[in-house]
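Dear support,

We are seeing what looks like truncated structure output for some complexes. This example has four components. We would appreciate it if you could run it in full and send us the complete token output so we can diff it against ours.
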Amino acid sequence: MARAGLTADRVTLAGAELADEVGLDHVTMSAVARRLGVKDASLYVHVRGLEDLRGRIALLAADEKTIRIAEATAGRAGKDALVAFANAWRAYAHDHPGRYTATQIPTQIDPELAARAPGPRRAVELTYSMLRAYALAEPDLTDAVRLVRSTLHGFVSLEAAGGFAHARPSEASWARCLDALHALLEHWPAPCEGDPS
Amino acid sequence: MARAGLTADRVTLAGAELADEVGLDHVTMSAVARRLGVKDASLYVHVRGLEDLRGRIALLAADEKTIRIAEATAGRAGKDALVAFANAWRAYAHDHPGRYTATQIPTQIDPELAARAPGPRRAVELTYSMLRAYALAEPDLTDAVRLVRSTLHGFVSLEAAGGFAHARPSEASWARCLDALHALLEHWPAPCEGDPS
DNA sequence: GGGATAACCTAGGGATATTAGGTTATGGTT
DNA sequence: AACCATAACCTAATATCCCTAGGTTATCCC
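Here is the complete output from our reference environment:
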């Protein structure tokens, strides 16, 4: 009998493709096995189980998203970089809705596996280096990084969940939100009185 | 045999409680039935199925979150209102992690059911009225509403997913992000050249 | 060619989602 | 107070799913 040539990465990829096509929570061991022309049990050699598979999809998505962002922002700085960064983020979420939702799941990813995946850490590092142009000092820099990531993720997430009414195209709001973020980063406020920094 | 006195709302509530305790994707028909002391099949009288139940949990969460925000912001204005609004949002997500994740799921909620639930719409309205203090004109107002909602949701979501390293307490970043949002709303930028408004 | 390794399979247990159809409590009617 | 219609709840059954245990067979290396 011919071997399918499975590997953990190929199983993960099949799961990721399936997630984009039918939604993450229709990604089942059986469905992935069918897509690969293999029996369910064969997957457990490469993947610990469904939970593990979902974690791997999340890490794959983080890696892919990071690569796209890195390519988009290469050689850019200032607002140019911010816009490229944000658009790459959003485009990835649009292109791979299933993969993207996998990244949001508060699942317990195998730490050893997570350590091998550069995506999540690199994504944060990229955000830091993109924000260097705005000359923020710590701890403001960290706060700004978290705000930018929160806003981008939140917008994309709400958009995907249909959170924006149809009155105004979300495209237009997106562009203006990036304007606003840029302005904010250029004029990052001092801590308010009473705030422990 | 004594009746359990089930109703769609009671089933939804049981599911919501379970979601907060064991995580949304461990909410199963069987588990909800067990918690209610009832057989699985009995639930289908009140709820169309698992998908429907999750949608109902999401709507319940939206309603509850909206009520909390309304109470927290009552009688406040300006930054005071913004902070109260944001803290109520975040507190709800912390208190009810399962319910909150239900709101993020891009599930197809029964439109007739969604129309009956005031939560999501009211939440947006509350955001609008909170932002009136900043005197923004449309379409900037809508964009600002979307930005604020994106940032709050994104922060809470990333925080729940463990997206923030432990280097700096997320609590501190949260406070500074609210400072930043307030400053941004007070100095909302004009559209950049080349942007269609 | 002959192991050793690992890829893949068969078989099966336990849990779940959902439907169909039967039984019994409950509230209003007379 | 008996009665009846409604709907709440149950039994039974099917299909699917996750996962484990243990057996076969392809593939690689000597």
